[in-house]
Amino acid sequence: MIPKIRTGTGGTYGLIRYLCGPGRRDEHTDQHLVASWNGFAPDPGRNPHHTIAQLAAQLDQPVKAIGDRAPADTIWHCSVRTDPGDRHLDDNDWANIARRILHATGIAPEGDTTACRWVAVRHADDHIHIAATLVRQDGRLANLSFDRRKAQAEARLIEKEYGLRQLNPGDGTAAKNPTSAERFKAERSGRTETPRETLREAVRQAVAGADSEEEFFTRLREAGLRVKLRHLPSGDLAGYNVALPGDRNGAGEPIWFPGSKLAPDLSLLKIRHRLDAAPATGAPAPDDRPARPGRSAPARRRRDAAHAAERAVAALDQDDDEAAAHLVGAGELLDALAQTSPAATRAELREAARAFERATRSHVRAEHSDLRALRSAARGIVHAGSALGRGEDGGATAMVLSTFVLVTLAAARWHSARGHAQQAAASRKAADHLRSAYQQAAATPMRTMREIGRTLPDGERRRQDITIRAVLGDTATPKGPAREHDALAAVLAEAEEAGHDPKALLEKAVDRRELETARNTTDVLVWRIRRLADLPANPEQPNIRKAPGTQAPTKPARPRVTQPAPAQPVTDPRRPAPCR
Q1: I need a surface site. Which of 51, 114, 378, 384 has the fewest CB within 10 A?
Q2: Residue 288 neighbours by CB distance under 10 Å
Q3: What 3 state SS string does 133-170 have?
Q4: How many structural domains compose the chain?
Q5: Does 386 score more than 60 pLDDT?
């Protein structure tokens, strides 16, 4: 159940005319009052002798009685809507719900005969509108302190008592939703979303990895937005407003949105704090690794981002308040990936970034966390430009997305432990979109690795299976290798040929934090090993791979890089991963 509250000026005639009329598209049906302040208010919908003007006049009487002492806003309008899957509520149900909302907000406390005048109008099955005037009948002004928060809290109680879909309680840190007028205008203009939503995403992407206010404003302009800076009399910058080209009001003027009205963390003050607390480097950190054929700048930066994302998972697993800052950095990194992603994954990544945006804000404040690694990784991705959906770019995209799924799941656990229901739900929603994007990006490289694993020479495959069983447990069948480990066997064989100790490398990959929430542990380990061993993200057939039953050629052994096994693994991957 969703209550939405607005206030307005002037008399109630215009509002009542809309509520009791046919609607903008003749969508209103059976318009009538289900309740009123005294139970006897004129009902233009059910009584032909009652008019809209009569009802509006009775509602406005206390306002007119106090004359010049009336407040600027005299109208309180609250729509209350149920979920499409909820059961049908009759007029008596809606009347009780209206009275409870009015009592909870203080507009009309139960038993207060001199409270504000109000009516509840029903013109559809799934919602009502409550219209009230903000001057009480005793001449005092209504107290609107925290009315929205109180209405939401009461709605959560009503959901439980009436058996309706239960929404997650908020904490006041969510971005403001578009108004009905904004949605109607977007529909008339043929837009799939409102300007407010488009601007919010564009501003978030402009912040991702920016190292100065100047760069932030430059990115906004390069994205095609109109930007207006607000200065104090001293000349100091006080804030900024953004507008979409062509989005104008009735007077033909641009419709400006200050950053704080797009989201609480997009005000100039909050952006300045982020830039000062965790500055991204002026230029992406140089990549001094040996140049490898086919490894483009977008691919290299995605590999770096996977490492930064794993550090974020580790911070969230610590379960302290300082991890709140890593959520902000992870949000920037996801925004950077979304705006530079290949076409095949772009839509899912944009939805993931939009969902995770809610998870980056809560009342928890982290004062000492260092976000430079995450913000610098975001900056590197933006500067590297768009990635291709194939080859090394595609494989590196799968690598970072595999890790980012774990980031969102760790964020969901972190928020759930603190009772942040909306943020936890947003994290899980982002994880679903990231999984879909990962399946797109990983389809070709994972298929290649599985095929390579199936065609390994028998002796080579047996050795890798022994290594896998020693580290992960005896998951293979007595008759042959475990088919779910084909790709893992292939990557271990490739790492061994590159000079690594497969067992030590697998143990190190297992010890790289959380694995239990992964839907496919093998996939996570494959990408960790490819990154740890600096193997190409898009595998190719190496020389050791022969058709089944053939003898592998003899070749001089390469020295192995032995890595010590971890002293204390964090998780036991032998436990089955829960379904999510």
Answers
A1: 114
A2: 5
A3: ECECCCCCECCCCCHHHHHHHHHHHHHHHHCCCCCCCC
A4: 3
A5: yes
Q: Where are the beta strands (DSSP E) in 221-277?
A: 226-231, 237-243, 257-258
Closest CA to 135 of 55, 37, 41, 63: 63
Cα angle for residues 543, 546, 547 (degrees, 5° grid):
160
The string of DSSP letters for 267-294 reads SHHHHHHHHHHSPPPSSPPP--SPP-TT
User: Within this chain, do residues 93 and 224 fall inside the same structural domain, yes or no?
Assistant: no
The answer on 407 and 512 residing in a single domain is yes
- Overall pTM > 0.90: no
Q: Is residue 409 within 8 Å of 316, Cβ to Cβ?
A: no
pLDDT in tens, 2-47: 899 999 888 899 999 999 999 877 889 999 999 999 999 999 989 9
Query: Taking a C-beta distance cutoff of 8 angstroms, is the pair 139, 62 a contact?
Result: yes
The residue type found at 214 is: E
What is the spatial distance between Cα 436 and Cα 392, in angstroms, rounded to a whole number? 20
Calpha distance 257→195 (Å, rounded)? 9
Which of 248, 277, 306 is a domain's end point? Answer: 277
Say whether both 79 and 200 belong to one domain. Answer: no
Closest by CA position to 79, among listed 188, 194, 177, 200: 177
- Are both 311 and 198 inside the same structural domain? no
Domain assignment of residue 576, yes or no: no
CA separation for the pair 36, 33 (Å, rounded): 7
> Of 6, 26, 189, 162, which is closest to residue 82 (Cα–Cα)?
162
pLDDT digits (tens, 9 = 90+) for 265-282: 999 999 998 888 767 665
- Same domain? 79 vs 141: yes
Asked whether residue 176 is assigned to any structural domain, the reply reads no
pLDDT tens per residue, range 319-355: 888 889 999 999 999 999 999 998 899 999 999 999 9
152 and 37 housed in the same domain: yes
Alpha carbons 204 and 196: distance in angstroms, whole number: 12
- Give the E-state strand segments of 401-506 in sequence order: none
- Report the distance separating Cα 513 and Cα 526, nearest Å: 14
Same domain, 377 and 408: yes
Residue 542 located in a structural domain: no
Please give the residue range of the domain that contains residue 64. Answer: 2-162
Q: How far apart are CA 210 and CA 332, in angstroms?
A: 10
Name 128's bridge partners.
Answer: 80
The amino acid occupying position 350 is: R
**Judging by DSSP bridges, how do beta strands 75-81 and 226-231 pair with one another?**
unpaired
Collapse the DSSP code of 8 into the 3-class scheme (helix H, G, I; strand E, B; otherwise coil) and give the result: strand
- State the Rg of the chain over Cα: 30
Distance between CA atoms of residues 316 and 360, nearest Å = 12
Same domain? 131 vs 227: no
Angle, vertex CA 267, rays to CA 265 and CA 268, nearest 5: 125
179 assigned to some structural domain = no
CATH number at residue 126: 3.30.930
Question: Which residue, of 532, 551, 574, is where some domain finishes?
Answer: 532
pLDDT band at 480; cut points 50, 70, 90 = low
